[in-house]
């Protein structure tokens, strides 16, 4: 499935944790994604990210003409190609032409907008200025051709584990049996984007209404869901908005990247003559014994390992020849300790020890 190309994965689970509206979505999903900075001629490198300075229509605008030509003005000159590719409308309306004038791009749409319809004009984080700086979290402008912007709002934060939350899309769909997103068509009923702090706000939802959320992290910033590089997480729940309660706040969505490495911290107990060198910690994957990771210890004989998710065998050894590899026959080592590394997780307090060969098992 794509945002925009593909096929939707099965729904995961979301559960309510508080009667007041707090919500937690535990999601296991999929991962990854950079660019080059060039200094402006005659001065220091431009490292400041661009931003959307203004738009027409403005956010929350109503009674927008169906033949509107939306325009976006950026805080600085943009690179037209990457920026143009990052701009889209949802529900989908094809853009026939983009006309640039300085920092402003005006969109000539391929067809008129629908009457009494709410739209989201969004700019993905892949938009870049002329010096290669990305827009980052992206930006979204919501407006309607109807008399007033619908009152429904869903707001909260993304708790990202194993990736950065800013720029994560929140696809919002009216609840309907068997409905799954078609990101090629950008058929979501509303769209939100997580800001630099991971907070999101989906606005313009008709009430009363029942809605489902999908979290999409476009880590390679091409607006297309690609399982080997991106994260897509459906939430198998329904959020109900009513005329009496049109706003749901305090939503907390936890998205876990299943391929993100976890950290293992610990200490080595070593009573052997150190010869001024500390022990080495060796981790060997139980799934692939050729996959090995080593870590040095500090003066307090503490260590930190960063390991792919899964089971590992971890031991400490004295690296007598200082080649970073354990020579089983002649280098003292301790017994292995098995650890199970969870995606983006952290384990602390692992204790290893080094002993000489004559100490026995």
H and E string = EEEEHEEEEEEEEEEEEEEEEEEEE
Task: Give the distance, in angstroms, between the N- and C-terminal Cα atoms.
Answer: 53 Å
Number of strands: 24
Largest sheet: 10 strands, mixed
Q: What report would you give on this structure?
A:
This protein is mostly beta strands. The chain has one helix and 24 strands. The strands form five sheets. Strands 1, 2, 10, 11, 12, 13, 14, 15, 16 and 17 form a ten-stranded mixed sheet that branches. It has a four-stranded antiparallel sheet with strand order 3-4-7-6, with no helix packed on it. Strand 6 (95-101) and strand 7 (104-109) form a beta hairpin. The radius of gyration is 26 Å and the shape is elongated. 36% of the residues are buried. Mean pLDDT is 84; it is low at 1-36 and 357-361.
In a nutshell, what does this entry contain?
With 361 residues, this protein is mainly β. The protein has one helix and 24 strands.
What topology emerges from the helices and strands here?
Layout: E1 12-16, E2 23-28, E3 52-56, E4 71-74, H1 80-86, E5 87-90, E6 95-101, E7 104-109, E8 118-123, E9 139-144, E10 152-161, E11 169-174, E12 190-193, E13 199-205, E14 209-217, E15 231-236, E16 239-241, E17 247-256, E18 262-270, E19 280-285, E20 292-296, E21 302-307, E22 310-317, E23 337-341, E24 346-354
Parallel strand pairs: 1-15, 2-17, 10-17, 18-24
Antiparallel strand pairs: 1-2, 3-4, 4-7, 5-8, 6-7, 8-9, 10-13, 11-12, 11-14, 14-15, 14-16, 18-21, 19-20, 19-22, 22-23
